[in-house]
């Protein structure tokens, strides 16, 4: 079950977690910031996951989620899977893809499936309102971006007008991947650090779970969901030929 569905069951939206971070971190500061103590390779370096490996990881993926779209999105956050040793780079790529796989059913879902929720994601108290329409800010992309304020924050950080055109997240594969990388590299969610920093600083895969859905799944909240994420991670690290490291659970 995805983060969004779990939270809906308890009357909370996944975007509420992102909203907290968006409210605390101004969009103008939401830029990629790799750990200072780690070396960052050239942004032009090849992605540590090959296209063949990507296809092996996601054999039943929706054709929208292209490998080319993902690699095209990497320039937005050059430190992602490109910081530290080759082992750390592969571990971060595996951690991101494992969480994305869990959230989207193996890269199957592009948009939120429950259309009855669509009108709920417009916060009219924001000064900029919902220019694309009150039902336009539903969950989209690999980490299911939702709410008008999150589209604005992500769009401002990426230099893309997602507030006025949120549909780009379901129409342009690179934009869709960029919104997932925006969360991964800049948002702490219910955790204490971004997932990127968790992997670069070798805090372990479990810390990325905490940053994405820790208040629901971690500390015994939903061990089955945590194990599902861990299983995806260990499978992907196996495909990439890298040790998964320690601290896999939260």
From TrEMBL:
Phylogenetic lineage: Bacteria, Bacillati, Actinomycetota, Actinomycetes, Pseudonocardiales
Active-site residues, as the UniProt record annotates them: 103 (proton donor)
Ranges annotated as spanning the membrane: none
CDD domains (UniProt xref): chitinase_GH19 (cd00325)
Glycoside hydrolase family 19 catalytic domain mapped to chain residues: 49-250
Keyword Disulfide bond: yes
Protein name: Predicted chitinase
GO biological process: one example: cell wall macromolecule catabolic process
Organism: Amycolatopsis saalfeldensis
PANTHER family, per database record: CHITINASE 12, CHITINASE-RELATED
């Amino acid at each position: 079950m995805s983060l969004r569905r779990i939270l809906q069951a308890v009357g909370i939206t996944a975007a509420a977690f992102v909203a907290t971070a968006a409210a605390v971190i101004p969009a103008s500061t939401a830029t990629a910031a790799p750990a200072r103590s780690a070396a960052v390779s050239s942004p032009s370096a090849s992605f540590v996951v090959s296209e063949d490996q990507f296809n092996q990881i996601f054999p039943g993926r929706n054709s929208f989620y292209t490998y080319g779209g993902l690699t095209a999105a990497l320039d937005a956050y050059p430190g992602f899977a490109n910081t530290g040793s080759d082992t750390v780079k592969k571990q971060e790529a595996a951690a991101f893809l494992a969480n994305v796989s869990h959230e989207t059913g193996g890269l199957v879902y592009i948009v939120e499936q429950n259309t009855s929720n669509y009108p709920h994601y417009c916060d009219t108290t924001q000064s900029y309102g919902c220019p694309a329409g009150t039902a336009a800010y539903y969950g989209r992309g690999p980490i299911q971006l939702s709410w008008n304020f999150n589209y604005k924050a992500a769009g401002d950080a990426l230099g893309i007008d997602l507030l006025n055109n949120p549909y780009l997240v379901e129409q342009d594969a690179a934009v869709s991947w960029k919104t997932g990388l925006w969360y991964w590299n800049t948002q702490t969610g219910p955790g204490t650090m971004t997932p990127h920093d968790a992997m670069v600083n070798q805090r372990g895969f479990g810390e990325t779970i905490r940053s994405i859905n820790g208040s629901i799944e971690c500390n015994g909240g939903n061990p089955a969901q945590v194990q599902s994420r861990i299983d995806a991670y260990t499978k992907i690290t196996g495909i990439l030929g890298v040790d998964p490291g320690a601290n896999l659970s939260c």
